[in-house]
User: Fold these one by one.
Assistant:
Number 1:
Amino acid sequence: MKTVELGRTGEQVSQIALGCMLMGTLTDEASSVKMLDHYLDAGGNFVDTANCYAWWPSPGNTGDESEELIGRWLAHGGRRDQVFLATKCGARLSDPEEARGKTWEEVQARFEGASPDTVRRGIDDSLRRLGTDHVDLYYVHVDDRSTPLEETLSALAEIVRAGKARYVGWSNVRTWRLERIRQLCDRHGWPAPVAVQQQHSYLRRRAGLSHKSIVDDEQLDYLRTHDDLTLVAYSPILKGVYDDPEKRRNHDIMDPYQGPDAEARLAALTELAAELGVKPNQLVLAWLLHQTSPTTVPLIGPRTLDQYLAAMSALDVTLDAAHVERLDAAGAHAP
Ligand SMILES: NC(=O)c1ccc[n+]([C@@H]2O[C@H](COP(=O)([O-])OP(=O)(O)OC[C@H]3O[C@@H](n4cnc5c(N)ncnc54)[C@H](OP(=O)(O)O)[C@@H]3O)[C@@H](O)[C@H]2O)c1
């Protein structure tokens, strides 16, 4: 697998990142370990988790499961030095049982946030579950507007100074906040984010819809002109909706996208996928892998081994400039 430079750090991360959100809950231990081993054997190194994965699948799940599973895998496999390990803090719940059945807005209101104490305690707890003395990348999972940025950033700087995290990143963040974060880092000499983890796929969110998590044209423009930040694209196949019209009709991940632009892009995608003899999900990943400005690392989230292998097969799809241009040009609104 090819690698890309993370921001301008000199660090090489694999062009596909492996999301471990469902490992230890919806994906059992044996399948998770097979995926992780296969991914490293295929040249992958960019492993993504969080301190809240995944509390939601079933009663009794806490959010510790994914980090703990990765910890066991690292302990047994001894491959820590082959992994560029990313985790996050900020979206953990103190009482997952109390949050079950609540709306997404109600759940978000219960997130732990990014106060200095939470961030400091968060890294120590994650390191314990992961069984390692450092992570390579530590994200603020959800931008927290109720904590002064200076407080979060100085706590993150302490964590980096202590060697507990090598780099920091931000997720679910608006562009103006990213700019403010970078200015503060510059002013105080704090480590600035090298990665921004946002929801990003081939479909574009509906024109006029404001959203802190989904990349929009302004954010793309910002990232193009700030190449010290790599875009890590989560939900790159939008939960697999591209291969499955029924899922597309019913899945709430489609809510921000439905409309004429999505229809036009889906038509272009389906047509080109048929011509190339590949699946639409696979073509979306291949298209993301061909994005160079900004550099984009698709962060896949397979639940099963078959889904993992299907995602990895995107590496075998070569698109020429005309294919990329056709997909880029499709849509009902100007980019
Ligand atoms: N920063 C954040 O806020 C944030 C948010 C979400 C995720 N993430 C990270 O990003 C990673 C990926 O996100 P994601 O899980 O949303 O990505 P995704 O790959 O778009 O969605 C994963 C889901 O897509 C379906 N799927 C996967 N491969 C498929 C295939 N080949 N064919 C058909 N369906 C397929 C499965 O759905 P079924 O289970 O229905 O089969 C699977 O659960 C996560 O593991 C996590 O590390 C971060």
Note: The chain has a mean pLDDT of 96.
Number 2:
Amino acid sequence: MKYEETWNKVEEYITRKVIREPPYMKSALRRSVENGLPQISVPVAEGKLINIMAKAINAKRALEIGVLWGYGTMNIASAMGNDGIVTGLERSEKHAEIARQNIREAGLESRVDIRTGDAMESLIRMRDSREGLFDMIFIDADKAPYADYFRICLDLSHRGTIIFVDNMVWNGMVIESDSDDEDVKGIRRLYDELEKHDGIDATVIQSVGSKGYDGFAVIRVLRDTHK
Ligand SMILES: C[S@@+](CC[C@H](N)C(=O)[O-])C[C@H]1O[C@@H](n2cnc3c(N)ncnc32)[C@H](O)[C@@H]1O
């Protein structure tokens, strides 16, 4: 495609000129490749945005749904002090193990708690046991339950919580109203949820680059939503 080469070169340029990451990110990425993990973590520019947002809101308690090799997790954990904690939910034991190794190597293990199992089951347990509320939530796992994740995340939010959701454009397929793809349907259900909810401030930013054409939502919770 005509523009892809330009997008990739611009991404390389932005990454080289602007984005400063700790050296452990590169070795963590290398470990994920060597272990055959899918290369579907957020783009570097988005990882940095999450890191800056966590710093900006002084996040102390964060939740990530879908950890993979820990890139998003480390971006949030490294934005916090030693009193911060990121809870990461991950279905794959293998992904969780690689993430734990990466997080240990980065010296962030005291700030991260990775729980394996289905995210929805973990979320229900967290809500029902009143484990506490999160300052920042990053939703980035399977797409079909996106709206369910969002609703239960509201139960785990307080006024001012930032909810970041990846893959909100999904190669543009998100506008296909007659799609029978479960991922597309799941993402569209979240848009419907955002449309009708009056207790949030939200935007979706489109993005291009090495991870293709996609986008992410940034949502701010306006009122206490927990029960
Ligand atoms: C896109 S990757 C996450 C990338 C990560 N947030 C980052 O940017 O560094 C999605 C992850 O969600 C996990 N996942 C998918 N469905 C899940 C579920 N139902 N419960 C928990 N984890 C799930 C996958 O195993 C995968 O590791």
Note: The chain is about 40% helix and 20% strand.
